[in-house]
Amino acid sequence: MLKELYLLYKQNQGDKTARYLLDWLHRVWEGRWDKFPLFKKYFERRMKMLDQLLSIYPDLKIQGEDFEGNHTVEVSAQEYRFLIKYAPIIHYKKLPNEIVIEIDNPSKGELMKVLQRLKSLEIEPLVCWSGSKSWHIHIITFPKDVEDFVSYAIAEGVKEFTDALYKIILRETKIDGLDVGVQLYKSHWIRSPYSLNVKNGKIGLKKPLNGDLYKVWFFEKRLAVLAMMEIELGRKKAESRKISVRPVKVKKYEWIQKVIEHPEIVKDGRERLLWLAIVPYLVLQGYSDSQIEDICQKWVEKSGEDWKSKYRCKVRSMIKHCRDHERKTGQRWMPIRFDNLLKIFPDLEYLKKELDEVLR
Question: What is the pTM of this model?
Fold first, then answer.
């Protein structure tokens, strides 16, 4: 393997991204060169399966993960296929026309019931054991009257349509108790089949139960019509939920706006700022839950932190807290004032100087 990486390094001297990935792979396997042959055959199967996805969606994005949970940057699977061949773990960005159902801690009987219900809609998915505590069910969706997979997968609005189709599947099959965020989150990353699952010092393998190819489900027109009705209903509900936002005293919370605009000034206390200031401020301004998540995600990532590791759940929790408080009391949950923040957390005093600079 070391020789192969060296040859790839020579071939990609002018490509900074390739060199970065190859350096990363060298660090990942350093001291573990003898372990790679144990996984090589699985990684070759992984490449075969991701090549199938690439044939459907050429713009497939991937990132590698090492044994300690550190990720590479997002790169094109087409351009950097060698990462698929050598990385211990590959995550890919879910296809716009892919449905992923995750079932945590089920018995084999519970899994079979879900598959039987899916079969009632002529769905025969790819089923993978996560290597830890859950099953992942993958469904690639296509209309029966479409022949060109690529043109459908890249068409505008396919992600919204697929999410609606997912809701119809759950409704028609009466499957419940799932983590819907896996499917409905805007840009969810999926650990690919034949990637390792490293948790609590143990190494598992995400392994398909029923073959080494993704299954394609050609859905009926009836379900497509129901999905379009679901989309229209969702839009009407969103319109009805629009509320008039009382004017906010901008001066009072100008510091929060500046913190959002300048994530680079925050050296410490990101979680506290999100919880006490940023999320309540965005709720107060009338942003939707998804808009708040998007703003917070960009803010966290621009500050050099990993959004998924700890921030996403806490932001969602705080949004819910703010909404619940207003519903129960009729009063809004107000962002913390800057002077109160510094009284409670003196270690954030450094922000005063940073904000003075950007407020000038």
Answer: 0.66
Tokens of 89: 């773990």
pLDDT in tens, 15-72: 999 999 999 999 999 999 999 999 999 999 999 999 999 999 999 999 999 999 899 9
Residue with tokens 């706006």: 257
The top-level CATH class assigned to 95-242 is alpha beta
Q: How far apart are CA 122 and CA 216, in angstroms?
A: 11
The Cα 57–Cα 238 span in angstroms is: 30
Indicate the SS3 state at residue 156. coil
Token reading at 32? 């573990």
Longest C-alpha distance within the chain, in Å? 67
- CA-nearest of 217, 284, 205, 300 to 250 is 284
Q: Which two tokens stand for residue 124?
A: 């025969």
DSSP state of 122: T
Is 140 within 8 Å of 221 (Cβ atoms)? no
| Helix locations, 31-94, DSSP H | 36-56, 81-86
The full set of domain ranges for the chain reads: 1-93, 95-242, 250-359
